[in-house]
Amino acid sequence: MYIGIDLGTSSVKMILTDSDQNILATANSGLTVQSPKDGYNEQDPHEWVNSTMECFESLKSQKPIEFCETISIGISGHMHGATLVDKDGEVIRPCILWNDTRSHEECNEFENQGIDVRSISGNITMPGFTAPKINWIKKHESENFSKIFKVLLPKDYLRFYLTGEYFSEMSDASGTLWLDIKKRKWSENLLSCSFLEEKHMPKLVEGNEEAGILKNKFKEKFNFKNNVTIVGGAGDNAAAAAGMGITEQSQSFISLGTSGVFFTPTQNFLSNTGDAVHSFCHCLPNKWHLMSVMLSASNCLDWVCSITNTSIGEALTNVEKYFSDTNDLSNSSFFLPYLSGERTPHNDPYIRGSFHSMKTTTNSTNLQYAVIEGISFGILDGVNSILKVNNNFEKIFMVGGGSKSKFWIELLASLLNRKLSVCDQSEFGAALGVARLAMYVDKNIDKKENIIKEINVSKSFTPKQDKIDLLLKRYNIWRDIYSSNKKIASNLLT
User: Fold this and answer.
1) Residues 6+ apart with CB under 8 A from 233
2) Which of 92, 191, 324, 341 has its CA 20 to 30 A from that of 406?
3) Cis (ω within 30 of 0) for the bond into 45?
4) Which three-class secondary structure string do you get for the chain?
5) CB–CB of 293/261 below 8 Å?
6) Looking at residues 150-171, what average pLDDT do you find?
7) Given this model, what pLDDT does residue 38 score?
8) For the chain, which residues make up each domain, given as ranges?
9) How confident is the model at residue 473 (pLDDT cuts 50, 70, 90)?
10) In angstroms, how far is CA 250 from the centroid of its own chain?
11) Among all residues, which ones are annotated catalytic?
């Protein structure tokens, strides 16, 4: 048996699988995010621990015999979070999350130290990445900076809690800006830009390699029969890719979760820093991937449903009917989905969300449609940015909470003019991915090459030909709206 843990922003998800990759049990425990200021997003690492323990208990209660036979565990986590621990292994301050934009000034400082950051890291410096967060801490919280013994990513702190060992792996480490992406090792030059050394970093392994043994106290607490191995695991999107079997350059996926992501593997190291495309290692050896990221996706829908006092289900029903009327669609309002700034392709920490072309006839359904359309336009921005350096992908799979909406996927298929496929069990895709990685250390599995395989497609969606031209016309107007707003965005923030 194998366990996959997915440490998400809003919850910990966990699955128990057998050697045939059947999901025997699932568990979910919620997390909270603190936002002390505009653009600040933090999380208490102790919540990750508590939620993980709850999920362990839940799996054990559902499948007690199978649970106790667990051989290995894989962990996925939301990327970039700066989790600082002191020499005693204690958390120094709350973790600064991936969608925190406070360190935008430090990004310029990081890149202006005589080191060719972009060619080594493969990425442009953005406030979401880990490195500028540390530079911010050094400048604004010098006492906390002086206590740093290790800088850990969220999943790697959870691993440390479970094993007492300091490890990370290539896919998650790629999002720190301290990794030499091509050589797959920490760069002393990049670390020096954050006034750190390699001693402050965890040891690196590949995602399917051993990275610690579960502490005896947890083995005894949960009655595990084996000495449970924990593997390197993966950053959340690389884990989701492994869960869907997306490891080859012909494949790709779109994630409609809290953030919006387009992900496609590459055979070699590629980058497009001009459009803020993420160039990372994959979670398997000798593989890389490109990724576009928009900071606010399904949380924009959560927000508009909250202010219009509408459930998400009701909103999606409303906008599906709205979308079928070409006249309504042609005269609809526009929405910039930048509630927390934006990454790909703008790398703009100042831009914020806004509605445009509102009229006296604008109602809640129009606003809800504008939000979904604006998120979809952001996804297209990301796909176009990756197409500039890589056009090898053919298959596009859908994952994340938004993938449950038939209407939304049809809209995206029309906008991208491509077939989109929904996978089975997409909600637990990242957890399945790291459970698969955990299988690699099981000596009883002979054919390791068969572990990662494409999961079943439950449904496919094709473009609505009568909507393509209109959507692209609106997309071009939407891009002009961003260009105009960019000029005043920084003046609007206090």
Assistant:
1) 74, 75, 76, 77, 155, 159, 169, 172, 207, 211, 239, 283, 434, 437
2) 341
3) no
4) CEEEEEECCCEEEEEEECCCCCEEEEEEEECCCECCCCCCCEECHHHHHHHHHHHHHHHHHHCHHHHHCCCEEEEEECCCCEEEECCCCCECCCEECCCCCCCHHHHHHHHCCCCCHHHHHCCCCCCCCHHHHHHHHHHHCHHHHHCCCEEECHHHHHHHHHHCCCEEEHHHHHHHCCEECCCCEECHHHHHCCCCCHHHCCEEECCCCEEEECCHHHHHHCCCCCCCEEECCEEHHHHHHHHHCCCCCCEEEEEECCCEEEEEEECCCCCCHHHCCEEEECCCCCCEEEEEEECCCHHHHHHHHHHCCCCHHHHHHHHHHHHCCHHHHHCCCEEECCECEECCCCCECCCCCEEECCCCCCCHHHHHHHHHHHHHHHHHHHHHHHHCCCCCCCEEEEECHHHHCHHHHHHHHHHHCCCEEEECCHHHHHHHHHHHHHHCCCCCCCCHHHCCCCCCEEEEECCCHHHHHHHHHHHHHHHHHHHHHHHHHHHHCC
5) yes
6) 98
7) 85
8) 2-237
9) very high
10) 21
11) 236
Please, which residues bridge with residue 399 across strands?
255
| Whether pTM exceeds 0.90 | no
**Size (the chain), residues:** 494
Residue 43 CA to residue 144 CA, distance in Å, equals 16
Residue 328 vs residue 417, higher pLDDT? 417
- List, for residues 183-231, the tens digit of each pLDDT value: 999 999 999 999 999 999 999 999 999 999 999 999 999 999 999 999 9
Helix axes 312-323, 406-416, angle to 10 degrees: 40
Q: Which two tokens stand for residue 143?
A: 């006492």
